[in-house]
Amino acid sequence: MEITILSQGKDEMEILVKGETHTLMNIIKATLLEDPRIETAFYDVKRLSNSVEREPVLYIKTMPGEKPIEILKDVADKIMVMCDDFSAAFTEAVQKQ
């Protein structure tokens, strides 16, 4: 995975998440949209001018005064906790069999 910030303003940013698919992008988008500091978040799979491949581009717009980078860091941490919780629950379920 390679992440490039394509544009950034006070309350919005656009990032390229090279090498990822809908699987990760849907989790990121859904978790962002759960955050009350987010006005909108979506991604599109685009063919950038310098590439023949299609890559996902994530767009985030925050509520006024909120910092997109900080919210995205918080969301990444939240997703990691969710993955850890799932892993622990799955391990427990497997051990019960």
From TrEMBL:
Top-level taxonomic group: Archaea
GO aspect biological process, one term: DNA-templated transcription
Q: What is its main location?
A: cytoplasm
Any idea where this protein resides?
A: Cytoplasm
Q: SUPFAM superfamilies of this UniProt entry?
A: RBP11-like subunits of RNA polymerase (SSF55257)
Q: Which UniProt keywords apply?
A: Cytoplasm, DNA-directed RNA polymerase, Nucleotidyltransferase, Transcription, Transferase
**Catalysed reaction, written as an equation:** RNA(n) + a ribonucleoside 5'-triphosphate = RNA(n+1) + diphosphate
Gene Ontology terms, MF aspect: DNA-directed RNA polymerase activity; protein dimerization activity
Gene Ontology annotations for the cellular component aspect, listed alphabetically: cytoplasm; DNA-directed RNA polymerase complex
Q: Which InterPro entries match?
A: RBP11-like (IPR036603), RBP11-like_dimer (IPR009025), Rpo11-like (IPR022905)
- Where does the record place the DNA-directed RNA polymerase RBP11-like dimerisation domain? 13-87
> Under which EC number(s) is this enzyme classified?
2.7.7.6
Q: Please give the function described in this protein's UniProt entry.
A: DNA-dependent RNA polymerase (RNAP) catalyzes the transcription of DNA into RNA using the four ribonucleoside triphosphates as substrates.
Tell me the subunit arrangement: Part of the RNA polymerase complex.
Enumerate the PANTHER family for this protein: DNA-DIRECTED RNA POLYMERASE I,II,III (PTHR13946), DNA-DIRECTED RNA POLYMERASES I AND III SUBUNIT RPAC2 (PTHR13946:SF28)
Please report which protein family the annotation says this sequence is part of. Answer: Belongs to the archaeal Rpo11/eukaryotic RPB11/RPC19 RNA polymerase subunit family.
* HAMAP family given in the database record: RNApol_arch_Rpo11 (MF_00261)
The molecule here is called DNA-directed RNA polymerase subunit Rpo11
According to its UniProt entry, this protein's organism is: Methanimicrococcus hongohii
Gene field = rpo11
